[in-house]
Write a structure and sequence with these properties.
The chain is 49% helix and 4% strand. Strand 3 and strand 4 form a beta hairpin. Helix 2 crosses helix 3, helix 17 packs antiparallel against helix 18 and helix 17 runs parallel beside helix 19. The termini are far apart. The chain binds heme C (4 copies). One heme C binds next to helix 6, helix 9, helix 11 and helix 15.
């Protein structure tokens, strides 16, 4: 008996050792060691991805795919920089009087970041060099040189004289050992305020936090235009309702932060940027420990090795690699589930946008109406501000609701309610229902 048992135990140990060995071999194969050992090490301040690419040619090639792979438009995303204003004509009304109302394009891959901001309407880069903060690997050296003065430097001067590369390796990696690192101070500071030291983050957390350097909601402080994240002191403080309250805090003139005043409704409106990280927080996937990189940077085979893909794009291009690690269903089914979530989000978002357009028109009518009740107009503007903010939060996050379906519908539902209240108050201001 004892002999049999020890054979079983022995076999189990042998099997575990074999599995461990395979896992080790797999990892050795996956983490591509530095190639070209005769090259000098990558310099501390090296920002050129091509130089990093001499050491890591497969990663460089995969990074270049974001500029060179065919353009594929998915139902709501993809790397085709189509005009959002043509796709969502209601945006022309809702962003009237602001740069985004003149030109607003769907985003595409990282290597295009500098080119794309170079080509957009000048109205959208009036703030200065600050607009380059999340576009280029040259920013950390400029911040080191100029400190907070960097943000208000002239956009064109900085772009022409100092910006050499778009988002690249040094934005996320330490050249010494390729560890992930945070290079944008705003994230470090916002997390510090929450009592979190980013240098203590786990590897899995870093696979999300490197993205949170840029894929977030932010604003520029009114004085020095310093990039700042409007988060409270806890994770809850990243929700759009809390961020809305933040923008009302006492620091600002007339008690609230305003991006621009809508020319038709005179509403002091806010523009949401791209709160991908905040919206992802508390989603099913985030709660289950899944990171941005799990879906957007899956392991892919290159010859006989596996590398982390650096072609950051729609995961619908790579369902096999991105989703099959955890989901067993076939690709067509998974895609349909994603589209099902996105369609629902899109339909409600459209209703919210239409009600906001109606609110703008009703407030405009009341403003032109002799003897209208000013208190009620103010109330209508406040509801409109709140409604458009929640709509914009969901319109600007990049996954058409996929990153956190349940919370998404909650925000859009509230937005629709606020829009109805705005319409009602504006009508009451003219004495009509
Ligand atoms: C569970 C998988 C998953 C995770 C985790 C995830 N995403 Fe996504 N992401 C998607 C899917 C699916 C889409 C929708 C793509 C489409 O519509 O073509 C998407 C869309 C996007 C897009 C727009 C892509 C396009 O083609 O327009 C961006 C940007 C993005 N995600 C960033 C992030 C960031 C940043 C994080 C982490 C905070 C994250 N994602 C986490 C699956 C994921
Ligand atoms: C947006 C952030 C980001 C950028 C930019 C970036 N990487 Fe990475 N890289 C990652 C992440 C995330 C991982 C996965 C790390 C992990 O799981 O620990 C990774 C992993 C790696 C690895 C480890 C091996 C592997 O396959 O997992 C190498 C080598 C690497 N990257 C090279 C590069 C090179 C070269 C560039 C520039 C051409 C680059 N990276 C640009 C985020 C980035
Ligand atoms: C330094 C800032 C920065 C960092 C760090 C960063 N991004 Fe981006 N990302 C951008 C910008 C800017 C764009 C839009 C570029 C354009 O449209 O020209 C973008 C675009 C994208 C897209 C859209 C691609 C497409 O085809 O539509 C995806 C997906 C994406 N990022 C995912 C990620 C993920 C995942 C991470 C973390 C691993 C990350 N990004 C880290 C700034 C950043
Ligand atoms: C690292 C594991 C992991 C990866 C990778 C992953 N998922 Fe998931 N996904 C989960 C878990 C865990 C759940 C929670 C439900 C469950 O246990 O099946 C989930 C739930 C879902 C749901 C249910 C709806 C929701 O959001 O609550 C959808 C849809 C989904 N995943 C789609 C995708 C798609 C599409 C991809 C690839 C782009 C993907 N997932 C990648 C682990 C993962």
């Amino acid at each position: 008996m004892v002999g049999k048992r020890s054979i079983i135990v022995g076999s189990i140990i042998a099997l575990l050792l074999a599995l461990g060995g395979m896992a080790y071999f797999y990892n050795q194969n996956r983490v591509v060691l530095r190639e070209g050992p005769n090259l000098p090490p990558i310099g501390e301040k090296e920002t050129d991805p091509a130089v990093w690419g001499e050491h890591y040619p497969r990663h460089y090639e995969s990074y270049r795919d974001a500029a060179e792979a065919p353009v594929i438009r998915t139902k709501y995303g993809g790397n085709d920089p189509f005009s959002k204003l043509e796709e969502f004509p209601e945006m022309t009304t809702l962003f009237k009087g602001y740069g985004f109302g003149e030109e607003y394009k769907e985003e595409r891959g990282h290597p295009y970041a500098v080119q794309d901001i170079g080509e957009i309407n000048p109205a959208r880069k009036k703030s200065g060099a600050v607009c380059l903060t999340c576009k280029s690997a040259n920013i950390p050296e400029l911040l080191e040189e100029y400190g907070d003065e960097f943000y208000s430097l002239d956009f064109y001067k900085v772009k022409d004289e100092r910006i050499k590369h778009a988002i690249a390796c040094s934005d996320c990696h330490d050249p010494k050992n390729m560890a992930l690192r945070i290079t944008r101070p705003a994230l470090r500071e916002a997390l510090f305020k929450m009592g979190k030291d980013v240098d203590q983050a786990s590897r899995q957390e870093m696979r999300t936090l490197v993205c949170a350097q840029c894929h977030v909601e932010y604003y520029f402080t009114p004085d020095k235009k310093v990039v700042t994240f409007p988060w409270g002191e806890s994770v809850e403080g990243m929700k759009p309702e809390e961020v809305y309250e933040y923008f009302r805090s006492d620091e600002y003139a007339e008690n609230q932060f305003v991006d621009w005043v809508h020319p038709d409704s005179q509403t002091p409106v806010l523009k949401a940027q791209h709160p991908d990280y905040e919206f992802f927080m508390n989603s099913t996937h985030q709660a289950a420990g899944v990171a941005c990189a799990d879906c957007h940077m899956p392991y892919v085979k290159q010859g006989n090795v596996k590398i982390t893909s650096h072609f950051l794009a729609s995961p619908l291009r790579t369902i096999e690699e991105s989703c099959h690690v955890c989901h067993r269903q076939d690709s067509e089914y998974i895609k349909e589930r994603v589209y099902h979530i996105q369609d629902n989000n899109y339909n409600l978002l459209k209703i919210s946008a239409d009600r906001n357009v109606e609110a703008v028109k009703e407030i405009q009518l009341s403003l032109a109406y002799t003897g209208a009740n000013e208190e009620l107009i103010k109330e209508a503007q406040e509801y409109h501000r709140q409604s458009q903010w929640l709509w914009d939060w969901m319109s600007a996050e990049n996954s058409m609701g996929f990153h956190n379906p349940a919370e998404g519908l909650n925000y859009i539902g509230k937005s629709i309610d606020f829009a109805h209240r705005a319409i009602q108050a504006a009508r009451q201001a003219r004495g009509s229902e």
